[in-house]
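Contributing: when you submit paired examples, paste them exactly as shown. First protein:
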Amino acid sequence: MLLDSLINLIPELNKAFLETLYMVAISLSVAIIAGLPLGILLFVTDRGLFLENTTVKSILGFVVNMIRSIPFVILLVGLLPLTKLITGTTIGPTAASVSLSVAAIPFFARIVETSLREIDKGVIEAAVAVGATPWMIIKDVLLPEARPGIVHGITITTISLVGYSAMAGIVGGGGIGDLAIRFGYYRYDDTVMITTIVILICLVQIIQFAGDRIARLVDKR
């Protein structure tokens, strides 16, 4: 009976798993594209650094902290009008990717900023002393030195997005979370609930393992 239930569930599981990967891929790409420069900007505009600007730092820091302070479920509901404007709908994995991206950008930006803070200030001062331009310092000093930390940050962000994508099922975002709610919760199907939990655990373990391996490979220090 249990085996029959699992076999019948395979098409739904396959669809939900692909939707989860789709949501995570879109939001992670947006987080890296927007969050990486935002994190760098938060770092280089800090006091005592080569692009010091307390006004920019304060404004960006406030916006980042404001978004991060909102629980994802509330952010998900609050961004429904924006989601409707961008995607034309409020349900489905594409719609859920909007809220996931908004949540991921400041999260990843703070991780990038923290990774950059771990760089020895003497390395940055030496680059400034030899007349390197800000772009050269960012490209040739900051990013290579912070590469392992940034890779770890991408890993952490990806795992967080897997969890957030499951929450997106509450508002019909699709994915594994939506499957767990529709079948496991509303229909009291323990088989579905346990299966989705196992899939999520395995997915997170694979992501963490891959992230750790890549971080070790890019660490040339």
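Second protein:
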Amino acid sequence: MSAVQQKARVLLHEAMAKNTFRLRLDGVELATTITPGQFFMVKIPGENDPLLGRPFALFDICKDAEGRVAGLEFGYVVVGKMTGRLAQLQAGDEVEIWGPLGNGFPASPGGRLVFVAGGIGQTPFLALAREALGVQSYPQQNPRKVVQPSSVTLCYGARNAEFLAGVEDFKSVPGLKVELATDDGSEGHRGYVTQLLEEHLKAPGEPVTIYACGPEPMLKAVQKLALSYNATCWLSLETPMACGFGACFSCVAKIRETTPAGEESWDYRRTCVEGPVFEARELIFENHP
């Protein structure tokens, strides 16, 4: 693994939506090696409650006036002790970060790209959209090859308009189409974000490649649609993690595999190492009561 550990100063901390915030850090070394869909761990120095760091997906890297990489950003929702502590940080404060971790999303294969996001699951898609549309390259040290898509669309759903975070960031990306859905109809389509996805799958044209991140029920629905329409689909799991580098096996996912004898089987894969992104056809979701 090529992860680095460093202390980083808070450069910017601002609200994005209800209970949702953006943190910009000056972690230059990490920012030059990370790709869309990868994540990093964040911890408050000198504090042991919570004891372990928490994973956050890259929102995007940021540059200074001379075009040099100056740091990176992530978004978070205040839901527990760690995110509550993050909400108290101010510009100039320090955090510990280590990464990049995980596999990240594959680069654009061309055709029509549809990003499907629910809750805070929109965060990996700003960088991915900017890469696909030629605005930015990742990783900065050794940019990967990207096939220009014919179209790129973000389908983003939330409970209501108050929880839609970073919409203006996405709308500022040249060539990116943004479609919104809310449960109550307060912004965009009233209903599920997967209903927006299905309209793209039904439409004639080049093959659709789906990238999705969000709550598990949404990912299950996206998986079902992708299999029904025989579309390539990459799902990014929001599995709780402890160590972030594969030692504790607390974040495993069930993955289909074929034995040497050609029989269907499955095994566990670590979301923090082999994931968090898995191909929809290989992922087995557990049935919870």
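If you have annotations for the second protein, write them as plain sentences, like these:
The two ends are 37 Å apart (CA to CA).
The chain has two domains: 4-101, 112-236.
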